[in-house]
Design brief:
Layout (H helix, E strand, L loop, with lengths): L7 E5 L2 E5 L2 H42 L25 H24 L3
Antiparallel strand pairs: 1-2
Length: 115
């Protein structure tokens, strides 16, 4: 733990000033540098979060939200067809729609989840 530094206040030419030891001043300067570095890291992380959010939004838009494989309440049924038989295009499309719908639902659930 850092100790609490008691500043010595003086009046110099009618103005209040604070007197610090050289060690305390060096600690103050080092703390300011650390805070500056942390602020820069926070800015970079904020930009990464914004880019990731944009990516997830675009991915959700890309996979769409097919209606064929949704329940009345908007959830994806657990028994979406995973495989289709050869030559059955309708089943293949339904399976792809179910996968796309499941991905879109997953993206929304994780993006909208409260931390």
């Amino acid at each position: 733990m850092t100790r609490h530094v008691q500043a010595h206040r003086i009046t110099l030419d009618g103005r209040e000033a604070v007197v610090l030891t050289p060690e305390t001043y060096d600690q103050l300067v080092a703390s300011r540098r650390q805070i500056g570095g942390q602020s820069a890291r926070v800015r970079v992380l904020t930009q990464q979060v914004k880019r990731t959010e944009q990516f997830l939004t675009e991915l959700e838009r890309l996979v769409g939200d097919p209606v064929r494989c949704r329940e009345q309440d908007g959830t994806v049924p657990a028994a979406c067809p995973e495989h289709s038989l050869p030559g059955e295009a309708a089943h293949r499309d339904e399976g792809a729609d179910c996968l796309r719908s499941a991905i879109a639902t997953l993206l929304r659930r994780h993006r909208d989840a409260a931390p």
